[in-house]
Sequence to fold (344 residues):
Amino acid sequence: MSFSDKVITIERHIIDGERAHPGATGSLSGILRELSLAFKIIYREVSKAGLANILGLVGRENIHGEQVKKLDAFADEKIFETMDHGGFLCVMASEEHDDIIPIPPEYPTGKYVLLFDPLDGSSNIDVNAPIGSIFSVYRRMTPAGPGTLQDCLQPGYKQVAAGYVVFGSSTMFVYTTGDGVHGFTLDPSIGEFVLSHENIRIPAKGKTYSINEGYHEYWPESMKRYIAYLKSNDTAGGRPYSGRYIGSMVADIHRTLLTGGIFMYPGDSRSPQGKLRLMYEANPMAFIVEQAGGRATNGTQRMLDVVPAALHQRTPVFLGSEEDVDLCERFMRDRGAGPSGGNG
Fold:
C-alpha cells in the first residue's frame, strides 16, 4: 500500500482535526468518537433486525403521538448509554423524550450539549428501506453543574458539530465541525468508519427534488406553482426535474448532498409549521448543508438564524443546492404567478 492509499479512520481524522486547533481540549473529539461507537452498535442491530426480534412496535407512543418502534427505543437507549458517563456533556435531549435528559448524578458533567434523533425514518424500518440517526452539538450556556433547557434551546448557528449516519446499502457517517463536511463508510471487516468522501461539496444546482407529493392538496399555492415549475419542460433550463422521495430525511438529504437538488418539507393547511423538528432534524442538517456550500431556509428565513422557543418545535424545511433553494424561496415569497410570471 502506498502512502496515498492509506486508510484514514474517523478517529484519526478527528485527531488530525484536533491538532489543527492547538487550543482544543479534546472534549469535542471525545464526543465524536463515542458517537461513532454508538452508531456501530446501532448498525449491528439494524443489520440483523429481521433476525433479532427487534422489528415492530414497543406498544407505547412518544411525545409526538407516534408509535415507538423497537429499533427507535434501542437506538435512543444506546446513544444515551454511550454518551452519559464520559464527562463531555452537561445535558442531552432526544426526539423520543418530552423533556431534557440529565446526566446521571454519579457522572461528571462537561461543557457540551448533545441533541439527537436516534432513528430517523422509522416508518421505513419494517420494509428494509434506508434509515438513519442525526445529532447536533452545542457549547453549554450555563456556567457549570447540571445542564438546563436553556443550554438546549440555542439557534442553529451556535452549533459546534453536527452529523448523521445513514444505514442503507452501506453505513455512512457524515459530520462537520464547521470546517467542511466529511463522510466515512463503515468497513465491517475491520469495524471502522473509513474516510470515503472528503470535503463534500453540494452542486450549485441539481436535477432532482424531494418532497412528499401526497400532501399536494394541502400545500400553499406558491408551493404548488414551484413544483409545477420543476415538472415543466425546459431543456435549456434543465427541466423537468426528477422526483426522488424515500421518506427518511437522512436518506433524502444524503442523496441531495451528494448529487444536488432540493429537499422540501413545507408547512401546509393541516400543519402550518410542517412536521420536522427544528432542534433534532432541521438545524443539524442545515449546518451540514451550509458547510457543503448549500442553503437551508424555512421559506422566509435562514434556518440557522431561527431562535427556538421549544424543545420539540417544528419548522418548514427547504434545503439543498444554493440555486435551487434560492428559486424555491422566491416562489414561496411571491403570492402572485411566481417570480418569473409563471413557468418561465
